């Protein structure tokens, strides 16, 4: 008896096609859901950053982190990761004695995750994760910089680094090299590769004119 009632309730829907309007609604809802995930989970805080400068989160591999640290070996002082993601490179730098070790990251979820990761190993007081736009941070006093960003923004970043960094600074780029700078050292292979650039050497071979586009 109950089965018959259930069948009667379901049967009006059975065999009905979704139709054009239905498809449009499904497409609209899917699009809205995808946009919400993008805007509120993956890229919150990026609304004021021009589209061409938006770089999504992708964590460095364990080997990539190790190569970045190899290229910073023997150095000390302030270390900054531009676009610090879940904070893994800054955490490793703090463990290697860099102080202050600072990450700039626009995504607030990643900033929280970074502190949580540091807290788990009792390093939360020795790292600093700041929710700031890396393009607006002044780097004049920074001796050690690491970055793992999309190739599309690296040319503009060269200009910023060239004009702001002190002569003794070293920049380490993970996965993608800086497009025109000559590297001092390269370690690793494929996606784990990292490049080191000594700003003094870069300034010796490049004229400021090559970097006169304003950021
Ligand atoms: C490819 S991930 C690298 C994460 C981390 N450095 C690592 O190596 O694991 C790039 C990170 O940069 C952040 N990012 C992109 N543009 C930024 C900006 N303008 N200011 C601050 N962070 C930014 C993204 O949110 C993302 O987490």
Automatic annotation (TrEMBL):
Q: Which GO terms describe its molecular function?
A: protein-lysine N-methyltransferase activity
Q: Which InterPro entries match?
A: FAM173A/B, SAM-dependent_MTases_sf
UniProt-listed GO biological process terms:
methylation; regulation of mitochondrial ATP synthesis coupled proton transport
What sections of the protein cross the membrane? 20-43
UniProt keyword list: Membrane, Methyltransferase, S-adenosyl-L-methionine, Transferase, Transmembrane, Transmembrane helix
Q: Which domain of life is it from?
A: Eukaryota
The family database entries (Gene3D superfamilies) matched by this protein are listed as:
Vaccinia Virus protein VP39
Its Gene Ontology cellular component terms are: mitochondrion
SUPFAM superfamilies per UniProt: S-adenosyl-L-methionine-dependent methyltransferases (SSF53335)
| Family recorded in the similarity comment | Belongs to the ANT/ATPSC lysine N-methyltransferase family.
Instruction: Kindly provide the name given to this protein in its UniProt entry.
Output: N-lysine methyltransferase FAM173A
């Amino acid at each position: 008896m109950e089965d018959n009632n259930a069948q009667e309730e379901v049967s009006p829907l059975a065999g009905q096609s979704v139709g054009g309007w239905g498809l449009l609604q499904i497409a609209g809802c899917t699009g809205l859901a995808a946009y919400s995930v993008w805007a509120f989970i993956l890229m919150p805080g990026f609304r004021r950053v021009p589209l061409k400068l938006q770089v999504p989160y992708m964590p460095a591999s364990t080997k990539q982190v190790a190569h970045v640290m190899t290229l910073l070996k023997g150095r000390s002082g302030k270390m900054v990761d531009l676009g610090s993601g879940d904070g893994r490179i800054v955490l490793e730098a703090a463990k290697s004695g860099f102080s202050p070790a600072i990450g700039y990251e626009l995504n607030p979820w990643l900033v929280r995750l970074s502190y949580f990761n540091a807290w788990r190993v009792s390093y939360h007081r020795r790292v600093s994760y700041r929710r700031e736009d890396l393009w607006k941070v002044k780097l004049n006093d920074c001796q050690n910089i690491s970055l793992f960003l999309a190739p599309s923004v690296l040319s503009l970043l060269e200009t910023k680094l060239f004009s702001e960094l002190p002569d003794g600074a070293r920049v380490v780029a993970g996965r993608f090299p800086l497009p025109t700078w000559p590297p001092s050292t390269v370690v690793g292979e494929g996606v784990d590769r990292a490049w080191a650039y000594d700003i003094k050497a870069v300034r010796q071979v490049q004229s400021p004119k090559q970097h006169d586009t304003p950021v």
